[in-house]
Every structure is written in structure tokens, then in C-alpha cells.
């Protein structure tokens, strides 16, 4: 292993991830471990240069004060009691130490006390992971559901580099992908990276199951269940697969709750596959934050557009073609979305706006085309910014850009005679309409 490591022991402080990120920003790798880790377990972690014990008001769990094992204090590692150091700082500044102040404390600890080397970078990360993956997998085969999203794409690129054709990627096109998206997965992974890629066009199957289903929750359930069924069928056709690769990333784990934090959502659910189809997991992005996943993707040579792809919901365009999905409205969503993306890119907005897309509702309005009355669907535009998707504000798009998008949609998209803009923040609205 190439990189030095600073271990953070988790006594329930919500600042743990912030500290891990700040240490990584100094170029030194850092991971968070449970508070009750033993010295024996600690010694198995490679290159540990120092330990940060970080608890806060949370280190009382079920009425009991929790601490690290006494043996940790005498194990000989340089130690920083973060809360204590930061609290000293607080006395002087009467508030939570400013970012620079905290960073100065961390910097002094990491470099002066622990003598850690700033050798955490994506090149070393990729080299280490390639070695670890090869060690874990040996000559066995690994299966990956490759959606084309950032995480699964980076996992695929990393595994291709490590084990080449021992990786079997399955890309399921549920017919609700954006324009050109499945094609780009095939182009990048099959044509350029020579991956072992199975492409399953299940569009008809999904659209058939969804026919006449108008309830949003019901639609989501059908899409999710059908996705697992298609993936399971493909997995059963393959022989000798021992591992399943997943794009689990650090925030997924941190949000799942540690021993000292409440479980927000469960993770490690192997895509809902049946009992007899359980595999061992390969999760090479397990310790990365989202921006590090993107940096890893760039290091592996993935195209910029794939690495910086805006978030796209699992049920895809299905939740943007409101009510019971019809082919003509789905086509209108897909084509208008492509125009919106193209014009946002032309205006440079693709680099700054968090998420932008179009919606087609299941009602019509009266219009006039070629001097005749028409009765067609509206297209709704949505462009939002957010940090964590829990709340969101609306991007104030330039009028000229909106006008260009509107003109193009009205001219190029069939069955559409009106364009509207959704300017509702979240809350009260959600980002998606269904
Ligand atoms: P809402 O509509 O809840 O969306 O404000 C918040 C963010 O989550 C995305 N989203 C999903 N992502 N599967 C996903 O992977 C889903 O079922 C799903 N539903 C919503 C949405 O696009 C937005 O970024």
C-alpha cells in the first residue's frame, strides 16, 4: 500500500466526515473506524501514522458514556483528541474554530506529530485498488450492473483496469434512459475499453408492465422490481460468477449509521437479489467521497461528460412522463430533455447547474399551429441547485437561453404546443414531479 493513514475513531461526532475530508485535502489518507476497535485490529490497517479521537456531545449512547478501549491510549500511536483541541481553540475565539483554525490544528498533528507523508492522490489510489482487487478476486469472475451513472461507471473502469475480461458488465436499458445514454455506455465501455459488456434492451418489457399504471409509487415499484428481475435473469445465464461489484461510496456508509449514530438508511442490500444468488461484494469506492469518485474517473480516463453527469433517478424518464406512460409522451420527454441539455451546454450552464430536465404532464392544452387549432401536451422545464437534495433553489436562467430552448422544443418536438417553467423551490415542491 502506498499511502499513509490517519485513523479517526468515531465517538459519535457528526464532524468525523468533515475531519476525514480535511485531512485528505492535506494529501493524507484518512478513514473513520468504530470507537471499540482493538489494538490488534488497528495494527492490521496498513501505514497508520496517527489516531484522532473525536467525540462530542454524542458520546453518551443509551445513557452510557462511550470511549475508546484503554489499550488504544497506550499503543504508541500519536494521538489527537479533536474535541479537546478544538475546544481550547473555542475558548479563544468563542465559537467553533474557523475552518483555517481547525485545519492548522490538523496540519500540525498530521505532519509534525505523525510525520505523515502527503502521498494520497488518485494515481496512488488507483494503483492500490488495482492490487487489492486482484488479490481479492484472483482468477474469479465479477458481475456489475452498469447503469452509466458516475459510481457504476468508475467501478467498471477500475475493475477493467484490474481484471479486464474477468469483469462482466450488464447494462439494462429499461426504455426510460435519456437520449443517447445507453449508446454512450456501449461506446465507452465496449468499443473504447473493450469490456465484457452484456447489453439488455428490456424497453418493451418495462413499457408493457407500466402500461396504464398512473400511480407514481406503483410506477416506481414496478420499475425497481422489474430491474432486479431482468438483472437476475442475466446473472443466472452466466456461469462461475463469485463476486458482485457495487458502486457503494463513503456517504452511503456514513449515512447508514455507525455504532454511535442512528441508522438513516440501510446499505449493503445486494440489489434485492434472491437468497440463492448472493455473491461476495467488491466495493472499490467504499471509502471515497463523491468528488473523489469523479477525480478517480478522470484518472482512469473516463469522458468528462460521464464523470460529471448530473444526477439521474433510477426510474429514469418514467417519473418525468407523468401519470400512465405513453410512447408519444415519453418521446416528447426524451427529445425535449436532449434539447434542454444541449442548450444548457451551449450556455455553459451544464458546468454550474446541479440538475436540469423536462417533464411532460398527462393533459393537453389548446394551441394554434399552421393557422389551425391544435390540442397538444405542454413541456415543463426545471433547473435546480442544491447541496444535498434535501432542499433546492431554482436556477435563474437567462431569458435568452429560455427563449432559445422554447423555440427549439416547439419546433422540433412532436405533440407539444406549449413550454412552461417550474420555478418552485424545494420545499414545498420536490425536485422531481413524481
Ligand atoms: P426529490 O424529487 O425527492 O429528488 O426532491 C431529490 C433527488 O433525488 C433524485 N431521485 C432519485 N434518485 N432513485 C434515484 O436514484 C430514485 O428513485 C429517485 N427519485 C428522485 C432526484 O432526481 C433528485 O436529484
Categorize the overall geometry.
globular
Supply the number of helical segments: 15
The major beta sheet can be summarized as: 5 strands, parallel
Taking all residues together, what is the mean pLDDT? 91
The residue fraction in helices comes out at 40-55%
**SS content category:** alpha/beta
> Segments where pLDDT lies below 50 for 5+ residues?
261-270
Assembly form of the protein: single chain
Main β-sheet, spatial strand arrangement: 9-8-7-10-11
Structure description:
This protein starts with a strand and ends in a 13-residue tail after the last strand. Mean pLDDT is 91; it is low at 261-270. α6 (122-137) packs across α12 (290-299). It has 15 helices and 16 strands. The strands form four sheets. A five-stranded parallel beta sheet has the order 9-8-7-10-11, sandwiched between helices. The protein is globular and about 85 Å long. The protein has helices spanning 16-25, 39-44, 70-73, 82-93, 99-113, 122-137, 150-163, 181-192, 203-210, 216-237, 250-256, 290-299, 304-307, 327-346, 399-412, and strands at 5-11, 29-34, 48-55, 60-61, 64-65, 79-81, 141-145, 167-173, 196-201, 241-245, 280-282, 355-359, 365-369, 372-385, 393-394, 416-421. With 434 residues, it is an alpha/beta fold. The structure holds xanthosine-5'-monophosphate (XMP). Xanthosine-5'-monophosphate binds at residues 220, 311, 313-315, 355, 389, 426, 430-432.
In short:
The chain has helices at residues 16-25, 39-44, 70-73, 82-93, 99-113, 122-137, 150-163, 181-192, 203-210, 216-237, 250-256, 290-299, 304-307, 327-346, 399-412; strands at 5-11, 29-34, 48-55, 60-61, 64-65, 79-81, 141-145, 167-173, 196-201, 241-245, 280-282, 355-359, 365-369, 372-385, 393-394, 416-421.
Amino acid at each position: 500500500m502506498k499511502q499513509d493513514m490517519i485513523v479517526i475513531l468515531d465517538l459519535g461526532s457528526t464532524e468525523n466526515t468533515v475531519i476525514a475530508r480535511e485531512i485528505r485535502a492535506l494529501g493524507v489518507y484518512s478513514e473513520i473506524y468504530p470507537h471499540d476497535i482493538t489494538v490488534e485490529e488497528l495494527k492490521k490497517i496498513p501505514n497508520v501514522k496517527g489516531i484522532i479521537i473525536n467525540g462530542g456531545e454524542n458520546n453518551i449512547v443509551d445513557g452510557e458514556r462511550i470511549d475508546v478501549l484503554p489499550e488504544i491510549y497506550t499503543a504508541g500511536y500519536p494521538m489527537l483528541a479533536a474535541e479537546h483541541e478544538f475546544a481550547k481553540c473555542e475558548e479563544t475565539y468563542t465559537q467553533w474554530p474557523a475552518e483555517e483554525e481547525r485545519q492548522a490544528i490538523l496540519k500540525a498533528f498530521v505532519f509534525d506529530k505523525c510525520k505523515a507523508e502527503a502521498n494520497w492522490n488518485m494515481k496512488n489510489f488507483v494503483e492500490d485498488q488495482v492490487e487489492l482487487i486482484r488479490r481479492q478476486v484472483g482468477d474469479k469472475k465479477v458481475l456489475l450492473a452498469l447503469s452509466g451513472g458516475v459510481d457504476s461507471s468508475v467501478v467498471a473502469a477500475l475493475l477493467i483496469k484490474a481484471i479486464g475480461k474477468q469483469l462482466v458488465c450488464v447494462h439494462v436499458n429499461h426504455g426510460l434512459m435519456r437520449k443517447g445514454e445507453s449508446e454512450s455506455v456501449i461506446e465507452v465501455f465496449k468499443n473504447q475499453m473493450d469490456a465484457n459488456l452484456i447489453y439488455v434492451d428490456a424497453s418493451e418489457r418495462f413499457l408493457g408492465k407500466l402500461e396504464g399504471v398512473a400511480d407514481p409509487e406503483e410506477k416506481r415499484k414496478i420499475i425497481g422490481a422489474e430491474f432486479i428481475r431482468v438483472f437476475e435473469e442475466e446473472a443466472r445465464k452466466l456461469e462461475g460468477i463469485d463476486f458482485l461489484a457495487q458502486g457503494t461510496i463513503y456517504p452511503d456508509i456514513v449515512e447508514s449509521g455507525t455504532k454511535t449514530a442512528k441508522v438513516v438508511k440501510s446499505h449493503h442490500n445486494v440489489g434485492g437479489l434472491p437468497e440463492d444468488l448472493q455473491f461476495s461484494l467488491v466495493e472499490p469506492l467504499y471509502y471515497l467521497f463523491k468528488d473523489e469518485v469523479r477525480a478517480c474517473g478522470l484518472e482512469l480516463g473516463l469522458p468528462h461528460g460521464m464523470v460529471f453527469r448530473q444526477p439521474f433517478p433510477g426510474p429514469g424518464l418514467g417519473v418525468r412522463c407523468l401519470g400512465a406512460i405513453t410512447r408519444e409522451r415519453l418521446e416528447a420527454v426524451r427529445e425535449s430533455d436532449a434539447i434542454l441539455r444541449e442548450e444548457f451546454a451551449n450556455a455553459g450552464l451544464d458546468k454550474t447547474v446541479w440538475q436540469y430536465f423536462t417533464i411532460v404532464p398527462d393533459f393537453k392544452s389548446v394551441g394554434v399551429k399552421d393557422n389551425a387549432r391544435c390540442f397538444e401536451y405542454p413541456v415543463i422545464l426545471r433547473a435546480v441547485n442544491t447541496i444535498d437534495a434535501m432542499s433546492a433553489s431554482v436556477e435563474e436562467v437567462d431569458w435568452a437561453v429560455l427563449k432559445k430552448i422554447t423555440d427549439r422544443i416547439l419546433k422540433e418536438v412532436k405533440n407539444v404546443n406549449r413550454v412552461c417553467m417550474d420555478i418552485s423551490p424545494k420545499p414545498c415542491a420536490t425536485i422531481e414531479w413524481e
